[in-house]
Write a structure and sequence with these properties.
single chain; 510 residues; alpha/beta; Amidase signature (AS) enzymes; eleven-stranded mixed β-sheet; two-stranded antiparallel ribbon; 13 strands; 38% helix; globular
Length: 510
């Protein structure tokens, strides 16, 4: 038996699946190995709740399915869930004191679909409180840490998910992306993550932040593993009013994304040495202005040159309202958060203050004690812009800007390019506490991701380089596609990852 933990011997879900089905290793052995690694890496603070008994029960069930020869696609694959997906058994806290001891009586649709596919959950992952943040520093239970440098943030809000994958604790994890919260932590931790088209993955059972923006997406080491999870997670759900039945004429169900990915990959393979011949890559000039760090710009340029060597053509484009995405987002998202979080009143569930004078005082004290500073800040902003007299001036105006931002992307896709590429973040991961004196500084770092979320487009991040120096940190390349083209995006990313090895690097291989 090799010295390395069993669950890290396999570099892809497909490789581990083959070993499980050949009975070279059991799902229980894999789960136990991963649980030991989670305990050994407790200092990362990536996990908020681990229950070995629950995980081992799921692993034993997967082994029975494997032995019967009737195992579903993900039987025995170790994953974990961002702590905004409600789960039976494991606590669901949204990284907030408001929900510190809450356990859901039902599973989120995403959780249920992955469990039906045989995946073994190892627990719940740290995140920014109610998914509000860009560094995972707003968690009520302490920040998750970046495996590449534990003094650095892993990104947010899905920081625990990205850190767990980067550290090799799980093969994949779920995350949510409201304004970049899958793509940004994936970039800062050197792994891959995708946000699908809004409405393609059910939001049922996902703790709400911004209802018109929130979308679930997976994080894994490379594009092929993302296909495995995203294809399983996708599908129409009648319990979610924002769920789509059809994706541009194709039924929204499992198999859609995998079929598109396989078709694109076969097309690229057939093209030979220049598999991406004819692919037009739009490069927005607004993504390369002041504020972008030189080391990030250099890594993105190198990645674009790699794509050109694979046959793709670079096309300069303009997304003129890029800067407006920040004020538009930080009006719309807080407004929706203000509405969504009004349910936490100390009456039905969640934290209730120990002492109060009347119902209004109970609600006020419960919220003041249960919510953290960033959540309170966004609730106040959101409540303000929804007030009579300000609604038209702020909220409606932001929605108009949102439509113009979406139109900018549609114009680019219709006339100039097939995909859009650029940076995910202006810099590599900052150190924990760097922006403590200016809590809104992190908002500016979302400039390359917010417009895509406002438009509801699919986008992903893949590793494309590292900063220089004795403690190198990962850099991510963002790839944006038109609506419902997740399969194409993943195939384009896979072509890059077949030609490079950035996605194979681990913190131990610095």
């Amino acid at each position: 038996m090799p010295n390395m933990p069993i669950h890290t011997e396999f570099n892809s879900i497909d490789a581990l699946r083959g070993a499980l089905r050949a009975r070279k290793v059991s799902a229980l052995e894999v789960a136990d190995s991963a649980l030991q690694a989670i305990e050994a890496h407790a200092g990362l603070n990536a996990f908020l709740h681990v229950d070995p008994q629950l995980s081992r029960e799921q692993a034993k069930a997967a082994d029975l399915l494997l032995a019967s020869g009737q195992a579903p696609e993900l039987a025995g694959i170790p994953i974990a869930h961002k702590d905004v997906f409600v789960t039976r058994g494991w606590r669901t806290t949204a990284a907030s004191k408001m929900l510190q001891n809450y356990t859901s009586p039902f599973d989120a649709t995403v959780v249920g679909l992955l469990q039906q596919a045989g995946a073994v959950s190892l627990g719940k992952l740290n995140c920014d409180e109610f998914a509000m943040g860009s560094g995972n520093e707003n968690s009520a239970f302490g920040p998750a840490r970046n495996p590449w440098n534990r003094d650095a943030v892993p990104g947010g809000s899905s920081g625990g998910s990205a850190a767990a994958v980067a550290a090799g604790l799980v093969m994949a994890a779920t995350g949510t992306d409201t304004g970049g919260s899958v793509r940004q932590p994936a970039a800062l931790c050197g792994v891959s993550g995708i946000k699908p088209t809004y409405g393609t993955v059910s939001r049922y059972g996902m703790v709400a932040f911004g209802s018109s923006l929130d979308q679930a997406g997976p994080i894994a080491r490379h594009a092929q593993d993302l296909v495995e999870l995203l294809d399983t997670m996708s599908g129409f759900d009648e319990r979610d009013s924002t769920s789509l039945e059809s994706c541009d004429g194709t039924a929204n169900k499992a198999g859609r994304i995998r079929a598109e990915f396989n078709a694109a990959r076969e097309q690229y393979k057939a093209a030979g040495a220049r598999p991406l011949e004819g692919l037009r890559i739009g490069v927005p000039q607004e993504f390369f202005n002041e504020g972008l760090a030189d080391n990030v710009a250099q890594a993105i340029e190198s990645a674009l040159q790699t794509y050109e060597s694979l046959g793709a053509k670079r096309v300069g484009i303009s997304l003129p309202r890029t800067k407006l995405s920040i004020p538009a987002y930080y009006v719309i998202a807080p407004a929706e958060a203000s509405s969504n979080l009004s349910r936490y009143d100390g009456v039905r569930y969640g934290h209730r203050a120990a002492s109060y004078s009347d119902l209004a005082d109970m609600t006020s004290r419960s919220r003041a004690e249960g919510f953290g500073p960033e959540v309170i800040r966004r609730i106040l902003v959101g409540t303000y812009v929804l007030c009579h007299g300000y609604y038209d001036a702020y909220y409606l105006q932001a929605q108009r800007v949102r439509r113009m931002i979406a139109n900018d992307f549609q114009q680019a896709f219709a006339q100039q390019c097939d995909v859009i590429m650029g940076p995910v973040t202006p810099t590599v991961a900052k150190h924990i506490g760097d922006n403590r004196e200016d809590p809104t500084a992190d908002w500016l770092a979302d400039i390359y991701t917010l417009g895509i979320s406002l438009a509801g487009l699919p986008a992903m991040s893949i590793p494309c380089g590292f900063s220089a120096g004795p403690s190198p940190l990962p850099i991510g390349l963002q790839i944006v596609g038109n609506y419902f083209r997740e399969g194409q995006l993943l195939a384009v990313a896979d072509s890059f990852q077949q030609a490079t090895d950035w996605h194979q690097r681990t913190p131990e291989q610095k």
